[in-house]
Amino acid sequence: MATQDFLVELGTEELPPKALKPLSDAFTRGIASGLENAGIGFGRVEAFAAPRRLAVRVRDLEDAQPDKPVEKRGPAVKAAFDDSGNPTRALTGFATSLGITPDQLDTMETDKGAWVVYRTIEKGRPTVELMPELVDQSLAALPIPKRMRWGAHRTEFVRPVHWAIMLFGNKVIETPIMGLTPGNKTRGHRFHCPKSLIVPSPGDYEVVLRQEGYVIADFAERREQIRDGVMAIARKEAGGQAVIDEDLLDEVTALNEWPVPLMGRFEERFLEVPAEALISSMKEHQKYFHVVSGDGKMLPLFITVANLESKDPSQVISGNEKVIRPRLADAAFFYDTDRKTRLEDRIDQLKPIVFQDKLGSIYDKSVRVAALASKIAAAIGSDPVLAERAAMLAKTDLVTEMVLEFTDLQGIMGQYYAANDGENEEVASALNEQYMPRFAGDDLPATLTGCAVAIADRIDSLVGLFGINQPPSGTRDPFGLRRASLGVLRIIIERELPLDLQTLCEWAEAEHSSISEPNVANTVVDYMLERFRAHYEEQGINAEVYLAVHARRPTRPLDFDRRVKAVEAFRQLPEALALAGANKRVSNILTKQGGDSIGETIDTDLLQDKAEITLAEQIRQQAEKVLPLFEKGDYATALSSLASLREPVDNFFDEVMVMADDDAVRANRLAMLNLLRNLFLRVADISVLPTAS
């Protein structure tokens, strides 16, 4: 089948920079999946995205859908003809519905009899007919929270659409999309090339835009050009290094069609302000990259990316320097003003700020968190006094001028202001560490005081919100409780803290006075343990391993993690499948015969068969060996040792009838199996694991 390249471009007013890449990715996926569903063969799919355009090019696109055989079954043969062999109403009705005569039908034999069948070949539709539909479907499915209309058009999109290209080879597909008739003309840079440009074929698209239109249409190429240019200018003009924030790089890429990096300066006096405040001001408001020296110290420089080649770059630089100066001056003013008031003198300012209607103010929360952090600190070998102090100061920077202006600096500025006030170094660090980890993979608190406050803050929110029946739903989690749960688990596991979730939640529940839901601590613990599932799936650990441990409901995260790692290691052993199957069989037998009422005491005088005598002795030896290991939490070594029971267990089930006629012998064998199963249950319910077929 013949192939041609295909191109669709949508020309718009400036698209939202933070949405450009997601829109481009979704548009590209939509076109590709539409082609797959239509059964049309194609090669590489290429995305293009710039501030005023979204485009997709499909290489080697077949010029039509393939023809496909169609088979439609009608009535049974015995119902299709009367006794004289004439068509019945059932047959004529079926033929009429297909627009054919009965003599055009075939018959087919099946194991359920003979049937009338219609067979034909459905001719595939030409690609030029299908593409406008696929493009419309892809555009309609884009993740656009709020669409807009413009002019007299009823068409809706994220921004007004002003031109469209739709080419199959060098042929224009003129079927309207987004209320416009497509052509083969695009538009260049708004200032360098404010005119229409002809795109002869899809393969010429980015070449025409680059060489004639001053537009680099490929988002990834433009992104790397900006990165390289920013890094190069920092090295060349300052001997320093530009710090590239990936999200900022994406945003700057989405703001520029023809990027030109330029370096500017600001007054050195502003370096007295914490670097984070300067960076936030430059990044959030101006989209500048900052520069550091070889030893990581911030330099009084910034790099902006202009969307044009200026004949006088110094004018552009000067303009940016004039814009950034008042921003940095504001940051310096806020910093100087904030330091005149101690954080402890701001505590009362938290009283009017509502945390949650039923759970009180930020001040109320701070009091609860302080009490909880004190208990946690004592439990992990830290200083309860420091933890309580840090928790009471933890939210005070929320009412400082700097954080009111730059909300992303909460905690960071608290640490600076606490140090300025002469607070204990660990208290100051905890004011920043309380928010760690801020996102997946982020750093954890480095100090034990920071750990205590970070855990206490999250547990207080979890218990309080569950306690007033406001847990997260499938789509809403306004207080970030899922993230809070994972944060607590990570801190406890990775910092190896001896904390029990049940105890933590009960401590937190005792501090709340407005909780109305029953068994809140249990509910929150169950919710947090469920978060382990995704945590381990991300590490490539089988869900059955998590379920095997979860069945025992260990509530100490560090212990839970050790069990999971031990079961995962056990699962790799050659004996694992058979022992999992044996445990499942044992569990079923014990459940049917009384479950918890069955004891563990084995009467050796009642052992009869060689296989059961051997198994009983092996279980006794293993119990002596692994019980001390369980006490130490060395689950991996214990399970590895228990794996040696596979052969005696297999022999027992092959040679011994558990349900003996003699009541005493039967009870003794059940007790032995119960003891066997309970050894494994000290770690997990391995009967949940996949078993040998």
Whole-Å distance between the termini?
47 Å
Shape: flat
Strand content: 5-15%
Q: List segments where confidence is low: pLDDT < 50 over at least 5 consecutive residues.
A: none
Estimated structural class: alpha+beta
**Residue share in helices?**
40-55%
Radius of gyration: 35 Å
Individual helix count: 25
Order of strands, main sheet, comes to: 2-3-1-7-8
Mean pLDDT rating? 93
Number of strands: 16
What kind of sheet is the major sheet? 5 strands, antiparallel
EC number: 6.1.1.14
Family: Belongs to the class-II aminoacyl-tRNA synthetase family.
Enzyme class: ligase
GO molecular function, one term: glycine-tRNA ligase activity
Short account of what is shown:
The protein is of the alpha+beta class. 49% of the residues lie in helices and 13% in strands.
Structure description:
The structure is a single chain. 49% of the residues lie in helices and 13% in strands. The chain is α+β, with helices and mostly antiparallel strands and 693 residues long. The strands form 5 sheets. It has a 5-stranded antiparallel beta sheet. A hairpin with a 2-residue loop joins β5 (106-110) and β6. α1 packs across α7 (246-255), α11 packs across α15 (448-467) and α20 packs parallel to α23 (635-642). The chain is flat. 39% of the residues are buried. The mean pLDDT is 93. It is an enzyme of class 6 (ligase). Tetramer of two alpha and two beta subunits. It is found in: Cytoplasm.
